[in-house]
Amino acid sequence: MTQRDDELGRSVRAAAPYALVDKVRDALAASHGATRVQLFLADYGFTVLTPYDPLPGKEQPLSLYNSPEGRAFGSQEPREQQVRHGDAVDHHLPVTVRGERTGILSVRLPGDRSTPEAVDELTQVAALLGHEIMVAERDTDAYQRARRVTRLTLAAEMQWQLLPARACSAEEFAIGAHLEPAYAIHGDNFDWAADDEQLTVAVTNGMGEGIQASLLSNLAVNALRNARRSGLDIAGQAALADQALYQQHRGASYVSTLLMRFELATGRVEVVDAGSPQLWRQRGRTVERVPLEAQLPLGMFEESHYEAQDFHVLPGDRLLMVSDGVYEALSPDGELYGERALARAIHSTSLLPAATVPRAVLRALSDFRKADTTDDALALCLDWSGRQDTGQGAEPGPPAPDAGRTPSAEG
Questions:
Q1: Cβ contact 11:23 at 8 Å
Q2: Coil, helix or strand for 13?
Q3: Most-buried pick from 75, 183, 184, 237 (CB within 10 A)?
Q4: d(CA 159, CA 163)
């Protein structure tokens, strides 16, 4: 790190939470001769990039797919764009933190200042800005406001605040997840947490609609987190959450949950299937549903007993967890998305990174339905790499017990 980088870092960290972009703009003008600096944030629906602190005449959102900024966001690589009627160059730099794609920092430099070294330095600035935005969001609504192209329902507000992020990456895994309808989600939710030994992933679906479903999922997710942070295994986590929900609702409302724990060193997976979310796996060119023993949803009965099942993931495996709003969706001809179309969608997204797969699968679902719907739809993708220094995954463990016919597809 150069002295200039260190000074910029201290300057940005000392800025007011809502003034980070102003501080970066001033610093880059002084250090690189930047004539324009603008931050674009991905909206909740992951369809557009919305300008933070928009410049005059630049108030409209940009397409996430058909704009230079959007292409930089999709590729996660810096992109250059020559400015018309001059020698200036716009540099579009991904703002990403540990796999979480936040937006794009666009910086206009004079042509003679647009060197590879300058791009490297701007990339570092974009990464710094992403980290500082994550911290600043504890103290300001400015960035969350800027990400909205329409109003969130109260239920959706509660659900988005409950989420860990929309993507995460580490040596052993990469995760991405998405919810639809993004601005009016009800009870679907996802959660994850990792330490040096394990990764825990949960997909939940609270019954009902609106605030009722959101409150139900909120209670379930926080009960699971409380149990996880207390050191309980996943069967114990499910049992504690089950008790909390039953004590509150006496079986009148319940939550479907798929709860998984990955041993990072070995690829061994423990799973509790407590309800409707499904688990699919792509291994090589084969896509198939992983059969699991169905257990009772959380909160349906008093003191339900839960048991974890085991299986193994191998380096290169891709897992997809989907809610019933995905696999039970119907085409105009009455075909279930989970019969064949879901497997085709998983296979067609094989080359995409985990962070973008859920959105692509849900776009394919929308095309399959050919109609708008208010039903919740959740997809979570996990790519498993394993630990490279352990030889993990040389031999798969025993498969989960068969729970009936499972559709599959081969490319």
A1: yes
A2: helix
A3: 237
A4: 7
Bridge partner list, 410: 286
Beta strands per DSSP E along 53-148: 62-63, 79-82, 89-97, 100-109
The 10s digit of each residue's pLDDT in 225-264 is: 999 999 999 999 999 999 999 999 999 999 999 999 999 9
Beta-strand ranges (E) seen in 307-359 are 309-312, 318-322
Q: Distance of alpha carbon 191 from its chain centroid, rounded?
A: 9
Entry pTM: 0.91
Strand order of the sheet with strand 255-263?
A: 188-194, 198-206, 255-263, 268-274, 309-312
- Annotate 115-152 with b (16+ C-beta within 10 A) or e (fewer): eeebbebbbbbbbbbbbbbeebeeeeebbeebbeeeeb
Q: What are phi and psi of 306, to 5 degrees?
A: -120, 140
Question: Each residue of 359-396: pLDDT tens digit?
Answer: 999 999 999 998 877 789 999 999 999 998 755 544 44
Where does residue 229 rank: exposed (0-12), middle (13-18), buried (19+ CB within 10 A)?
Answer: exposed
State residue 180 phi and psi, 5-degree precision: -140, 150
Residue 277, judged by CB atoms within 10 A of its CB (0-12, 13-18, 19+), counts as buried
The two tokens of residue 254 are: 């319940």
Residue carrying structure tokens 């085991």? 310
229 alpha carbon, distance to own chain's centre: 21
Each residue's pLDDT tens digit, 56-76: 666 789 999 899 999 999 999
**Ramachandran angles phi, psi of 326, nearest 5°:** -95, -65
Of residues 325, 379, 312, 328, the one with CA closest to residue 352: 379
pLDDT band of 406, cuts 50, 70, 90:
very low
Lookup result for tokens 């926080």: 222
Cα 62 from Cα 69, distance rounded (Å): 8
The residues, ordered by sequence, that sit 6+ positions from 335 with a Cβ below 8 Å of its Cβ are 341
Cα distances from 82 to residues 25, 107, 141, in angstroms, run 20, 12, 34
Burial of residue 263 (CB within 10 Å: 0-12, 13-18, 19+) is middle
